[in-house]
Amino acid sequence: MAGVNLGIDFGGSSIKAGLVDVVQGRIMGETVAVPTPVPSTPHAVVEAIRGIDASLPGAASVGFGFPSVVKQGRAWTAANIDHGWIGVDVGALLAEALGRRATFLNDADAAGLAEVHFGAGRGVPGTVLVFTFGTGIGSAPFIDGKLLPNTEFGHLEMRGGSAERWASARVRTELSLGWPEWGARVSEYLAHMERLFWPDLMILCGAVSTHFDEFAPYVTSRAPIRPAALGAAAGIIGAALAAA
Fold first, then answer.
1. Cβ-contact 206, 136 below 8 angstroms
2. Across-strand partners of 202?
3. Class of the CATH-defined domain 123-227
4. Following CA atoms 62, 68, 72, 73 in sequence, which dihedral angle do they give, to the nearest 10 degrees?
5. Which of 10, 170, 220, 228 has the fewest CB atoms within 10 Å, i.e. is most exposed?
6. Domain map of the chain by residue range?
7. Which string of b and e fits 30-57 if b means at least 16 CB within 10 Å?
8. Is the model's pLDDT at 191 over the cut of 90?
9. What is the C-alpha end-to-end distance of the chain, expressed in Å?
10. Among the residues of 99-178, which ranges form H helices?
11. Mean of the per-residue pLDDT values for the chain?
12. Could you tell me which of 206, 120, 219, 221 has the C-alpha nearest to residue 169?
């Protein structure tokens, strides 16, 4: 179908996908989610994606958002994924497996593209920082709507370790932190980002963004903060948009 791509969003617990109208920036029909294979090797994940593709026919091309630095279609980091991905030409691997063009990009970049084009950052000039809070912390900075890809602001040093070991959604769950405690950690992280970039807007993505009203009173910043307007669908929509 013209103007319809398959968007795939890789997560620590599940791989989510949907057919996306890339002109309107919306998912058509139902999304599909399958458990992330354990171990999540390239072969196992590609087989899972084959099954997803078969259940969602009709896409012109495929976009795959993944938690890694992505250069020329290859994965170069593996902070929270199986190390077997490093150096793999994932775009070519998927294109061969699915029989159509496939675009491979960082998952936070995918979510950011969706939010800036169709969501909370649409039409916002200046510097917009998009953060995904999940297993780690992903980042996607935009200047006047243009993405600087493959940033790793979740690995900023904080309290003797990386920021995502202090303020990710996984840490909140593992330590059973309440919204006030977790909100304070997020505020500390965002304060670092503000000092470095002086953003005009910060957008918080990831499943935790659906609880924004619960933790927002405990998150302070100079710049305005908005939750992802597209919710958990941002990664799917952005991946499909990147493949357009």
1. no
2. 129, 225
3. alpha beta
4. -30
5. 220
6. 4-109+234-242, 123-227
7. ebbbeebeeebbbeebbebbeebbeebe
8. yes
9. 12
10. 107-118, 164-167, 169-174
11. 95
12. 206
Hunting for tokens 């977790």 — which residue is that?
182
Cα angle: 233, vertex 17, 140; to 5 degrees? 50
Q: What is the DSSP letter of 91?
A: H
Residue written as token pair 């908005």: 226
The two three-digit tokens of residue 182, written as one number: 């977790």
- Residue-wise pLDDT tens digits, 74-131: 999 987 789 999 999 999 999 999 999 999 999 999 999 999 999 999 999 999 999 9
- Give the Å distances, CA to CA, from 177 to 9, 153, 173, 180: 26, 22, 7, 8
Class of domain 4-109+234-242: alpha beta
- 4-109+234-242 matches 123-227 in fold: yes
Q: How far apart are CA 126 and CA 94, in angstroms?
A: 35
